[in-house]
Amino acid sequence: xxxxxxxxxxxxxxxxxxxxxxxxxxxxxxxxxxxxxxxxxxxxxxxxxxxxxxxxxxxxxxxxxxxxxxxxxxxxxxxxxxxxxxxxxxxxxxxxxxxxxxxxxxxxxxxxxxxxxxxxxxxxxxxxxxxxxxxxxxxxxxxxxxxxxxxxxxxxxxxxxxxxxxxxxxxxxxxxxxxxxxxxxxxxxxxxxxxxxxxxxxxxxxxxxxxxxxxxxxxxxxxxxxxxxxxxxxxxxxxxxxxxxxxxxxxxxxxxxxxxxxxxxxxxxxxxxxxxxxxxxxxxxxxxxxxxxxxxxxxxxxxxxxxxxxxxxxxxxxxxxxxxxxxxxxxxxxxxxxxxxxxxxxxxxxxxxxxxxxxxxxxxxxxxxxxxxxxxxxxxx
Length: 381
Fold this sequence. Notes:
This protein is α/β, with parallel strands linked by helices and 381 residues long. 39% of the residues lie in helices and 13% in strands. It has an eight-stranded mixed β-sheet with strand order 1-9-8-5-4-2-3-13, with helices on both faces. Strands 7-6-11 form a three-stranded antiparallel β-sheet, with no helix packed on it. Strands 10-12-14 form a three-stranded antiparallel β-sheet.
């Protein structure tokens, strides 16, 4: 009987969540934009140096808000990697836009900036770089191209909180940035996210979009004597209960990140021999990037059957997993979008990537077991 199961993910609880939840209940303000919402936004500002951020009920919601802020309309095109989660595309398909999928780099697994110019047409309104595993895309080149073509850059930094590119926090480089605090991320709220607005001209509209298209926030600040429906919007606010839980996490964000980096580094160091033997490739972190250790993955050699490895690990009590299936070959991707290029890296990575257990609290002994099981399986082949 298996006694020592090592899960792929185990949400970390700081120990203060219940106290803050009780306080939120005592304050008798359960809907959004109360004390804890504002305190979370202050901490996000502190960590990112972003002057205007709005807590949302998910990163998906933040992405949807950028579609409204950029006034994306039917027939517009938005460029994004095929190797990403469906939310990256859904946010713009909901506006009637056409997702244009491009390939990823073989090293960072981020959108390959080489293909961007080929993908741009006279209908392109935005590029959506996705910072995979908390490692930044090549933002200088992306921003330079976007500025030259007068198109928006919307950073999908769902995995990138407390990561940076050349000293700038991910999510603060493009016109908009979107963060996630989903249970699977480093800093969690169960469900939750944030929108970073990096141009003050969009601040007021973003606030109204989040409040069902009204100037309700201005009303509560005493800036208008009644609030009205001003623009298209929706209910993108998290509740105070969610924000109170998140506040405890944000207070401990640096501790959580450092612990994850230690775990990540141990995997990286110990798996070097398997890379040297040509059995797998470890993550690549460019010198321009500081990462948050969101994911530790390996990419298996082309002739290795990933399902065989996953099954072998699972039989040993290690729960590892794969990741995205290419969006451009999915039923919705075929129906709503188009692809540019051959997508060789996307296909290869989607078939060969293997993500290992990484969560605050995993022990060196557990990590050693993961490494031992993976090494034994690969060498047996």
